[in-house]
Amino acid sequence: SMSYVVNRREMLRKTLTGGVGAAVAPWVAHLVEAAEAHAAHAHGTVPAADWTPKILSAHQDATVIELTEMIIPQTATPGAKGALVNRFVDEVLADSGPAERREFLRGLTWIDQRSRELFGVDFVGATPDQQNALLTIVSSGKNTSVADQIGTEFFQAMKSMTITGYYTSEVG
Questions:
Q1: Which is nearest to 161 in space by CA: 104, 120, 111?
Q2: What share of the chain is helix, strand, coil (3-state, %, to 5)?
Q3: Cα–Cα distance between 18 and 5 in angstroms, integer?
Q4: What would the pLDDT profile of 89-114 be if each residue is shown by its tens digit?
């Protein structure tokens, strides 16, 4: 298992004890707070069959699904994809300020650009090994470039929103 996939119980504990840390960009902290507030108000509504994202494009939504499922993969229980965490992410973005939304979408665009630079394909088109390699870069915290910092901040936000969305879902 890759180093960025942490034991689920440990992840939950860290999330609940504010394990985001002080080294987080303000926009990331704001999104994390927004996700937690949203989770507190979401009372297991029945998922709509005809759901469409309010903020994310179809491609962005597919990328978010891929990322969330890598963060919490399906095991004996459904992963983030099965828990429809992408819908949670879109809802949080819809409720967020324009700055947070812009930064998050910039990070999503960055992931595709970096994937194209490295592998010649968008993130969703990359192989699992390639996706792992890219997420290892953004989760290692050992980034050498300013560009990679965008990815690191984005991944912090993505990871935290995924965990919050998952554990407050019907599945979680």
A1: 104
A2: 65, 0, 35
A3: 18
A4: 999 999 999 999 999 999 999 999 99
